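[Meeting: bench + compute handoff]

Bench side (C.D.) handed over the final construct sequence. Compute side (W.E.) agreed to return the predicted structure before the next meeting so the bench team could plan truncations. Sequence as handed over:
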Amino acid sequence: MSQNIEIEFKNMLEKEEFEYLMAEFQLTPADFFKQENHYFDTRSFSLKQKGCALRIREKQGQFEMTLKEPHPDGLLETNERLTKEEAHRLLQNGQIEAGIITTQLSKLGINIKDLHYFGTLMTERAEVPYKGGLLVLDSSSYLTVKDYEVEYEVTNRNTGKAIFLQLLREQKIPIRKTENKIKRFYDELKRMHP
């Protein structure tokens, strides 16, 4: 189990901008790895209403459950490693093992028996160290959507924001309002099933 504060800046990209940044940072398809985010909430979206998100991330044969909660400096992430069997039980029938995340969910007033698996977002990701932070290029596929984004993960909000905005200016990429992946996923789900 681990907890950390996530500070990141993100911007949606057009496919051409994504490809331009790949070339600018000398990235090839071999530099990208796949990860799958499996999203959970209650059927009434109790977590979403509290500004929280619950996912299992599957990356390189490893499984990690993450609960994201609002925090004054960004998002508080609580992470718990899962075995493949634990992850599959949760995906198949919502059975979640007792642990720090179930404790956090209980504090939020969420009954773990009410958790429901809503679907998966698959991301191809490349990461590049950049000016004291981590620059991330993501190509994500979910439901009927394929989208592109650039993220910048940092430890200092003010410095990171200045560096990220400078990068966008230098690359002539417009600043776009960018929701996090889970919000984009649920927005598309809602659009498909009003």
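W.E. noted at the follow-up: The chain has a mean pLDDT of 94. C.D. will use this when planning the next construct.
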